Amino acid sequence: MTALHHPARQGGRTGREPLVRVPFSTVDEVTRHCLTPQEPETVHIEVHLSGRPDAARLRTAFTEALRRHPRVLMREAPGPWYRRRYEWELTDGPDPGAEVVSVPDTGPGALERARRRALTQAPPLTASPPVRLEIIDRVLLLTVNHTALDGPACLRVLATAAELYGGRDNAPQAPPVRPPAGGTPRGLLTEAGGTGFATGFTPVARVARGTPGPGHANGMLVAELDVPQRPKGAAYTVNDQLMVATARMIAQWNDGRGGPSRPLRITMPVDDRPRGMDMPIGNGTRLVEVPFTPAELALPTTELLLLTAVRTRALKALRRPQLGRGAALLTAPVVPVAVRSVMARTARRALAPWTSTTLLSNIGRIPYPLDFGEGAGTARAVWFSAPARMPRGLTVTTASTGGRLHLALRWSAALLGPDDGTRLRDLFARHLDATGGKGEPLP
Predict the structure, then answer these.
(1) d(Cα 8, Cα 17) in Å, to the nearest integer?
(2) I want to staple 400 with a disulfide (CB 3.0 to 4.6 A). Which of 150, 152, 156, 365 is the partner?
(3) In terms of pLDDT, which residue wins out, 370 or 402?
């Protein structure tokens, strides 16, 4: 069944019935507790089309797509300080006055201004839906409040809008098959609940400070690269190559700034949801942490790739709460949310030295054609970026479209500046090439 023929939300409210409420998930609540106005928690999705969409038609299609995925149509429900849960209030449509789809002023720099808005202005949680779609010539820029939704969920909604707009099938393709497992690398913990590496109480490496630019919030750089080569039948995936490139990029960046030699940990979202119309909408990923020691990062590239492949496979197979058992316990509705909020912020500050070094979110090959039909055309490039609040201060997000790799580096303005982003991009590109056999890592 395609999105075009999927039944819309059945029934309707009479106006006298109370709105349906859904409790916040663990990810929703932890994010809500730790929000800071200086660094809005947004996800940015940028789709470059081969043609120019009609704004009125796209507004109609996107609004209907929201109704086909009603879990998007929500706002934070009000409540007293002593309530035990935050809750989402589901609505029948966008709130009156909410400009979900807009066409900002065009002209030189229009896309850069839209990107800046995506990093500095989060759609409010108090209005339904907490998303904003801007049409800039042939670019669709979707800004998502990450307290409510993640990138893959909103991409599903956009695929439905493409089908409603163009009348063409945008059903997801089958995911790629992961290659067979190799041997078990040293240092791997396989017991349930393990982190994948015994780092003990040693603080993990932080991304070394560069030359921060002016202002607050996040900075971002997007780039288009070659998908790395991989021998046929190799026991590692492109995701493993991206993981190795990210780890070596940060290790070299830190080494060049005199940082101490410490283990790295890279947070990796794992998303097991189906991609069809039955995809659960919300924050549906769980997070695992992939560790690397300085000695491991000095291994020959092929050996490091095989080690990484087994490690990521084992971590993905672990069935754990979204943010681990500690976060699940912290968000248990035992005390009022106001008390849990103080506890969460205190824990975040106390555990900062052991927070993972960075986050690598690999969306992988875009599973939908994103075909908007005649005139608007199909997606030729798709970028995502994830929030980069301190103490991590840097996130790496990748997606593959049309045989090209689309990379977004996003950083906290308190840690890095635009020139630092350029240098990190160059390091990442060269280390990624090395995973495909185009030379060993940089000295």
Answers:
(1) 20
(2) 365
(3) 370
DSSP type of residue 322: T
pLDDT, tens digit (0-9, with 9 covering 90-100), for 46-95: 999 999 999 999 999 999 999 999 999 999 999 998 999 999 999 999 99
**Gap between the Cα atoms of 19 and 22, Å rounded:** 10
Are residues 239 and 151 part of one domain?
no
The domain that contains 84 carries what CATH number? 3.30.559.10
- Measured N-to-C along each axis, helices 238-255 and 301-317 cross at an angle, to the nearest 10 degrees, of 120
Q: Nearest to residue 407, comparing CAs of 90, 107, 24, 46?
A: 46
> Could you tell me if 162 and 222 lie in one domain?
no
Q: What tens digit of pLDDT does each residue of 5-32 get?
A: 443 444 445 455 778 999 999 899 999 9
Residue pointed to by tokens 């043609």: 51
Strand partners, 286: 270
Predicted TM-score of the model (pTM): 0.91
Pairing of strands 218-226, 404-412: antiparallel
> Could you list the residue range(s) of the whole structural domain that residue 394 is in?
218-362+389-435
